[in-house]
Amino acid sequence: MSSNQNYSFFQSVEKSFDKAAKLTKWDLGILEQIKACNSVYQMRFPVKLDNGNIEVIEAYRVQHSQHKSPCKGGIRFSDEVNQDEVMALASLMTYKCAIVNVPFGGGKGGIKINPKKYSVYELEKITRRYTAELVKKNFIGPGIDVPAPDYGTGSREMAWIVDTYASLKPGEIDAAGCVTGKPVTQGGVRGRTEATGLGVFFGIREVCNMEDIMQKLGLSIGIEGKTVVVQGLGNVGYHSAKFFSEAGAKVIALSEHDGAIFNADGLNIDDVMKFKAQHHTILNYPGAVNIFKNTDALELECDILIPAALENVINAENAPRIKAKIIGEAANGPCTPEADEVFIKKGILCVPDMYLNAGGVTVSYFEWLKNLSHVRYGRMEKRFTENLNTRILGQIEELTGKSVNDSNREFIMHGPEEQDLVHSGLEETMITATREIMEIWKSNPEIPDMRTAAYVSAINKVATSYSELGIFP
Q: What distances in angstroms separate CA 181 from CA 133, 195, 319, one per listed residue?
């Protein structure tokens, strides 16, 4: 948490919410209900470590809103976990799901540990015990609350969770839907790993295809040729950088916790990752210049800046020095409300985290649906589509007397695999959400920035749900 902030992460979310709430037509009571966290479960449980010592673990699960069921949100393992952070992230999940039209309420979980300090066996014991505590209080289930990975957790932890849940709920046919982000063999979905980074790319690409927005920023339409700086090379940062690169953008700088590297002609992302795996750092990567202070990379001259690491990295202190035209918030809360004020004055477009990094939850939704339907995407239609396309192509070739080259033939005849369908569903989701937010922003001159427009979109959808449920007669 940056030291110049005198309010908590949850208060900073509330501040953004209040700013947007004033621009909606909803009754104060409904707005207060949307803002509040419905349930906060704080727990302590003992775990016996490998050395025989017993450690008491502090953990949380927050359900922010039940306007749609189940609640949805990741579980993070981190020293920094506290109730305020989990509440803030749970509320952001509510707004995020609403914006991208994923029918979940927001939730979030956290265990206050540094996972690097525990053996795999200890981590498994902690994760399974945490799951058992959630089951005890009915805080997990395919129709109640569905966790997912976050900082410090991945598909391995999700496999432990689903196994624990299924063993405590024998015969529950939809048990696999109690958590998402699982390994594919345990009911996971193909395309989940790259989902958040790909969603960031689709969202920014859609913004870059909007002629009026690009004109205002003095940029050409499209992604091609744009210069990009990515901060954070975790899963999200790496995939964002990779998809921008593949679309013809130039990733000129990459930043990590120990420093950054710069090359004006663009960096080869996969090469950098190989170098990082060998040397445990990206510094001294051949053909790039080192930037020893990692935050300096944020201030480089570029078209698109992607902060994909921690919250509050761009604040009142450094925002005036940001030179990017577009900031794509791949991380949760990388820019403070003060930074937003600076961007508005400078005419920088900040594309907000609360919908831009919703790729993960969107694909989690697809995984949950797959678990409830008990059938893999593409299994029913792949072969049918291929057979049909083969027939159509054959007919066209016969009628025209011309034949299609091999690469086009393969593309036309290809029936959708699970990953193709997941990527296509994600693309549709991000494009629709971007257009809805831009529409709200354009239609109300009082809305100062895209973040406020995104909040207005979320508030309208959640409030509509609440009022239609008849909770507020």
A: 20, 11, 34
Q: Which two tokens stand for residue 163?
A: 């196994």
d(CA 364, CA 368): 6
Candidates 132, 142, 138, 184; CA nearest to 159 is 184
The strand pairing partners of 75, in sequence order, are: 109, 149
Tokens linked to 322: 């940001």
Which pair of structure tokens corresponds to residue 433? 């959400």
pLDDT attached to residue 472: 54
Running DSSP on this structure, what letter comes out for residue 185?
Answer: G
pLDDT (tens digit per residue) in 194-240: 999 999 999 999 999 999 999 999 999 999 999 999 999 988 999 99
Q: What is the pLDDT of residues 20-32, one digit of tens each?
A: 999 999 989 889 9
pLDDT surpassing 80 at residue 257: yes
Please report which residue ranges of 268-314 form alpha helices under DSSP H: 269-279
CA dist., res. 473 & res. 467, Å (int): 8
Catalytic position from the list 35, 68, 96, 108: 108
Angle between helices 195-208 and 235-246 (to 10 degrees): 40
- What is the CB-side half-sphere exposure of residue 363 using CA atoms within 13 A? 29
Instruction: Kindly give, in sequence order, each residue whose CB lies less than 8 Å from that of residue 310, ignoring residues fewer than 6 positions away.
Output: 232, 331, 334
Predicted confidence (pLDDT) per residue in 166-186, tens digit: 999 999 999 999 999 999 999
201: CB partners within 8 A, 6+ apart? 239, 240, 243, 244, 247
**Which domains does the chain show, CATH number per domain?**
37-186 (3.40.50.10860), 189-381+416-473 (3.40.50.720)
Rama region for 470: left / alpha / beta (φ>0; ψ in -120 to 50; rest): left
How far is 345 from 329, CA to CA, in rounded Å? 19
Is 125 designated active site? no
Indicate if the pLDDT at residue 135 is higher than 90: yes
Burial 352-376 (b: 16+ CB within 10 A, else e): bbbbbbbbbbbbbbbbbebbeeeeb
> Region 146-156: what's the mean pLDDT?
92
Query: Which tens digits make up the pLDDT trace of 370-390?
Result: 999 998 888 888 898 889 988
Mark 296-323 as b/e (b = at least 16 C-beta within 10 Å): bbbbbebbbbbbbbbbbbbbeebbeebe
Cβ distance 290 to 297 under 8 Å?
no
Say how many CA atoms lie within 13 Å of 186 toward its Cβ.
21
